[in-house]
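Quick one, T. Sequence first:
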Amino acid sequence: MKSPRRSKRIILAVSVVAVAIAVTGGVYRMRKVQAAVNPPTARARKGEFAVIVVCRGELSVKRSVQITAPINVPDLKILWLAPPGGHIKAGEPVVRFDPSSARQQLDEKNAVLKQAQATVDQAVAQARITAEQDKLDLANARYQVERARLEASKQAIVSLIQGEESKVDLQSAEMKLKVQEATVNLHKASDTAKIASVTQQRDKAQAEVDLANERLGEMEIKAAIEGVVVYQMNTSQGWMNRQPFKVGDHAWSGAPLAVIPDLSTLRMEGRLDEVDRGRVVSGQDVRVHVDAFPEQTIPAQVSAVSPLTLVTFGEWPPVRSFHVYAEIQKPDPRLRPDMNGTMDVITARIPNAISVPGKAIFTRDGKPVVYTAQKDGSYRAVNVEIVARNPDEVAVRGIPENSLVSLTELDLEKKQP
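Structure tokens:
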């Protein structure tokens, strides 16, 4: 038989446990009710609602100038480069090559040119000497002809034998004159050909000197436009070991060294889904958000939409999408090509619209509803009409402006229309 004291202890312990359970349950119910009546909320806003199409993309430029290594210039070793990514003005140097080899070639070509010029001068001088000697010999031959003709004219007053001798001497002098005239013409033609030959060699040497001077002038490449310098990949060591050109690298003839994009032609190039293609046309306003500067909204305008889908190989499998281009009206100096970002294409504007966050729209009995706060702190489900929808915001009809709406779905015991 249990003692009365032990029975009292058991009853007391049971009472304590019951009280603890009641308190715990009350706290749980109180927290549940508190969570139910104090959900995260937002205000319904009245104002212009911009219907947008959102697409990802990157910055690009419509115009850029490529800097290439000189053509037919051997031993191109980069001696100096402008800072990569730095701003550069038109006319400023971008790349300088080592000019020592070009200068050595120029010195050699100049030496050859001097030798060729000396040969030309010598040939011209020798031709003049030959011409003067031929002129003297021709004059002497003509004198001998005239003298023989004079002696032959005395035939009437001299003996027959002397007259015949004079005729023979005249014929001999005339033959020598013809031979001398032919010799003069031969010397003139020979000297002209020789001078032409050495002059051609001199001109060839001069062309090589001009080419060497031109190559020496190409040891420094200057910027054609104002922009930033983006160096290209050097693939001379293989595709896997490619890296941007740097000081000390050897460039091949015509190698693409760098690109200078014209930042005044900066634009956003986005990838547009097929379902949104029919909503986007040229001339629509765009809000550009660059990932590097998330706090800044950049105004732009749609300039073109690709008529056919383009393949993007940035991921596998390749993605086919339309490309939309938005011209940035006032480019920020900090923007650079290939920066990633988002473009919001404004396809329509609804004035004086009531908008709520997208998280505030729920479905009840197959219809969209929002949970609005009442004056007594309770919430009521209100049916609304969806006017337009954006990824994060929805324009609705059925609630007044400044209504406090819940951002979480509430389990109301009594359903109200």
